[in-house]
Amino acid sequence: MIRAEHIVKSFDGRVVLKDISATFATGKTNLIIGQSGSGKTVLLKSLVGLHAIDSGQIYYDDVCYTSLSFTERKAIRQQIGMIFQGGALLDSSTVEENVRLPLDLFTNQSSKEKRDRVNFCLQRVNLKDVNDLYPAELSGGMIKRVAIARAIVMNPKYLFCDEPNSGLDPMTSVVIDNLIKEITEEYNITTIINTHDMNSVLEIGEHVIFIYKGEKWWEGNKHDILNSDNRELNEFVFASTMAKRAKACSGLHISETGR
């Protein structure tokens, strides 16, 4: 579990997060949604410790993360997996080297132990015979799956995903969504996903927080969201759905004209 209490964050005197409190349950997919500039990415980065907050507290289970020193935070950081928006793979490293990187940095495992763990994680995300390939040789969906394998290689208790479906086609997005959900449940991870994809919300949104102008404006699940009378949330859902349809139609048009 991760708990945020009265989080405030500002940049150059401009308040971006305004007194946000929320609890993110273990074993569930927790989604943060909102318009561009709403503060959802800042909230995610504050929770993971990439931004120092102005006030408030962040708890990892029963440990107050914000009160820990830089050195004391190391133990918790080793229990965190992170999936970045573009995958963030090292272009000059093979798939195996990318997935193995956290093991090289934070463990004293033997080469065989590392290789076995890498292979296990790649198999878990349904990738095989890709160990010696480089990122440039992978599709967008494969890159995201390698990023997931790297994120879980240390068997994390906490998983943060920043726009995991960015740049993917709808079918691949569903595959990535379901994979994240399966891993969350299977390993009982506290997973927090920052997304603007309404398909993801309706597919795996067990706990959803809507951020509006830096405030927690609405909270519920994928079923509640369709019956909400929150005007700003409904406008966001409508705009996101229309944008998704327009993108899909645009892709279909390009496909047809390219035949």
UniProtKB/TrEMBL annotation:
Query: Matching InterPro entries, A to Z?
Result: AAA+_ATPase, ABC_transporter-like_ATP-bd, ABC_transporter-like_CS, P-loop_NTPase
Sorted alphabetically, which Gene3D superfamilies does this protein's record hold?
Answer: P-loop containing nucleotide triphosphate hydrolases (3.40.50.300)
Q: What is this protein called?
A: ABC transporter domain-containing protein
- For the keyword Transport, the answer is yes
Q: Name one GO molecular function term.
A: ATP binding
Instruction: Look up keyword Transmembrane and say if it applies.
Output: no
Q: Which organism is it from?
A: Alistipes indistinctus YIT 12060
Q: Which UniProt keywords apply?
A: ATP-binding, Nucleotide-binding, Transport
Q: What positions does the domain ABC transporter occupy?
A: 2-238
